[in-house]
Design a protein that fits this description.
Length: about 600
């Protein structure tokens, strides 16, 4: 029975989540443009390998789900009873299990936002995998229910002492086009969550929006209302009416609503203008990666009002701010105290190579309508770069979980509004499986966090440095600046506390001198065993095998927020048993700077 149930988890892993075997990232199909007739080398497994730059893990699922569908994949296993037992294991100090799900379904890819006017109110977002598996399982296997949405949220109203609400945001009703006549369909809220404080006690939630029956896709933005903090409303999204929720209202920011869309929107980030004197006070800026049908990609950016009226600032009919970068991934936006808008991105390689990786930044005045020059922040992976021996993460660092080199950006809103801080995780050496060329290890044995800072609004960037513990795995950084004191906080997963370089902790590097020196703060007091998730073992193989070939659902990122001397971070951990097996859960942790 355990084997059958686990096969459901593996089905998606096999079909969609990068089983790293020889040839899984071979050159993709030729580009459609005659000027791009050479094969496109891709960071992604099929069918996502028609795009070059790295896609988020949840986007890879979206591209793989259509044929066969996600639900039909799950249906290959038909368990009829749930495994009982379970209970708490050693949960890290100062961490709250930030979800109310009692199934064994994995949740991952965490984001957090705090109300600066009332820090007892905290909102988290997470990929909620119940959407994939529960429709094909008996109710006993999903005792907490589920919704037709991948974009889960949780709240606490007492500063992380206990969970208040936990559910999923609503999906969208959209008009799609099939070449002859429009028709109405649902765009499912499809993860890659990002939350941010919106003002007036409300919060924004950005997400991918994907059609489960066609190729239509886009970016969704939702905003909460006062019901989110009332004790009565459950903030539930009904299965039979997945586009309604009493606490959230959503709208499509941008997308391709053709049922045969060749383009794809991925990996949204978000920031809000909190300058009360600004014309754009309370507006949300959403940046994401737009993938074109020919395999190239660019940074897209929109500004949305609290009423969810959105204006495209990059892409669509607007000039693309990422300029000549052909293989953009992980576009990131932040807003300064004066309303200035800063966007970073990285370009991943060339049409025929996976390196070099070069990261850039550009700046606009308030409103995001006046972006200027593009400034290089850091480069790595190959001759002529700042770090020629470092490479992009692709695969599973020391057999733990899928991860990628994702950049993160923050701006000082404490009074040093020209100070920008940037970080990205890189492979610094070692590999277990030589499935790729030497420039791109299949498994990264050691990785670091490259940090850079600018004190003039991004015009120039000081020499970068690796701020992570050497000889260990350090991945998925998130940068935040405390607006009360200017402290810089970089939070990430690390194996620094495990002599075997395998078990993970969450740590924060804290700088009180604008990124010149650092002190490590350990957020988790108990190391996590990332291999505890049952998706680590492939029961669909002839004789079964484990290790890094099967991907636990850790996602691509975590986020932190520094506020009034406290670090708030949401992260994934296998600290609790549900229905007899460990599972990946979201946790809310806090630590003093």
């Amino acid at each position: 029975m355990y084997r059958k149930r686990t096969a459901v988890l593996i089905a998606i892993g096999v079909a969609a989540l990068m089983i790293m075997v020889p040839g899984a990232s071979r050159p993709a199909t030729n580009l459609s443009s005659p000027s791009h007739a050479v094969p496109l080398v891709s960071y992604n497994p099929a069918p996502a390998n028609r795009f070059h730059a790295p896609l988020s893990s949840i986007a890879t699922i979206a591209l793989a789900k259509a044929t066969p569908s996600v639900h039909s994949l799950a249906a290959i296993a038909s368990p009829n009873v749930a495994v009982g037992g379970g209970g708490m294991t050693s949960v890290p100090i100062n961490a709250l299990r930030f979800i109310n799900d009692n199934s064994y379904m994995p949740q991952s890819e965490t984001t957090v936002a705090v109300d600066p006017q009332n820090t007892s109110r905290i909102v988290g977002g997470v990929n909620d995998a119940r959407m994939f598996f529960c429709p094909s399982l008996p109710p006993a296997n999903c005792p907490s229910g589920y919704t037709e949405s991948l974009s889960g949220f949780s709240t606490t109203g007492n500063g992380g002492v206990s969970l208040m609400k936990s559910n999923d945001i609503p999906s969208l009703v959209a008009t799609l086009y099939n070449g002859t006549a429009p028709f109405t369909s649902v765009l499912t809220s499809w993860g890659d969550p990002m939350v941010a404080y919106a003002g007036n006690g409300n919060f924004y939630y950005a997400s991918l929006a994907i059609s489960q029956n066609t190729s239509a896709n886009g970016i969704e933005l939702a905003i909460s209302n006062g019901n989110l903090w009332k004790t009565g409303p459950a903030c539930a999204t009904p299965l039979l009416n997945p586009t309604t929720n009493g606490c959230w209202t959503g709208a499509l920011v941008f997308g391709n609503t053709s049922n045969v869309a060749g383009s794809f929107e991925d990996k949204d980030t978000m920031a809000v203008d909190m300058d009360s004197s600004s014309t754009y006070f309370g507006d949300a800026y959403i940046a994401w990666d737009h993938f074109f049908p020919n395999g190239t990609s660019s940074t897209y950016l929109a500004r949305c009002t609290p009423s969810l009226t959105c204006t495209m600032l990059s892409g669509g009919s607007a000039s693309v701010i990422s300029g000549a970068s052909p293989f953009v991934a992980f576009s990131t936006v932040v807003v300064g105290a004066n309303g200035n808008v800063y966007v970073s991105w990285c370009n991943f390689g060339t049409f025929t190579t996976t390196g070099p990786v070069t990261c850039y930044e550009t700046t606009s005045g308030p409103g995001g309508t006046s972006f200027g020059a593009i400034h290089q922040i850091v480069s790595f992976m190959g001759a002529g770069t700042l770090y020629p021996g470092f490479s992009a993460l692709s695969g599973y660092a020391t057999e733990q979980f899928r991860t990628a080199s994702i950049d993160t950006l923050a701006v000082d809103t404490s009074g040093n509004s020209n100070n920008l801080y940037f970080a990205i995780d890189v492979c610094t050496g070692g590999n277990y499986y030589a499935f790729y060329s030497p420039a791109l290890p299949g498994d990264c044995g050691q990785s670091g966090i490259i940090f850079a800072r600018s004190t003039n609004g991004g015009a120039t960037w000081a020499k970068t440095a690796n701020i992570a513990t050497g000889g260990s795995v350090n991945v998925q950084p998130s940068v935040s600046v405390d607006p009360s004191n200017g402290d810089v906080v970089v939070t990430y997963y690390t194996t620094a506390f495990d002599p075997f370089n395998h078990r993970t902790d969450v740590v924060s590097q804290v700088s009180t001198d604008q990124g010149k020196t650092w002190t490590m703060v350990r957020v988790t007091s108990t190391s996590d065993e990332p291999s505890a998730d049952p998706a680590m073992y492939n029961y669909l193989a002839a004789s079964g095998f484990g290790g890094s070939f099967i991907v636990p659902q850790y996602g691509d990122y975590l986020t932190c927020e520094a506020l009034d001397g406290t670090i708030y971070v949401t992260f994934t951990g296998n600290y609790q048993v549900e229905l007899g097996t460990f599972q990946a859960d979201p946790f809310l942790g806090m630590a003093e700077e």
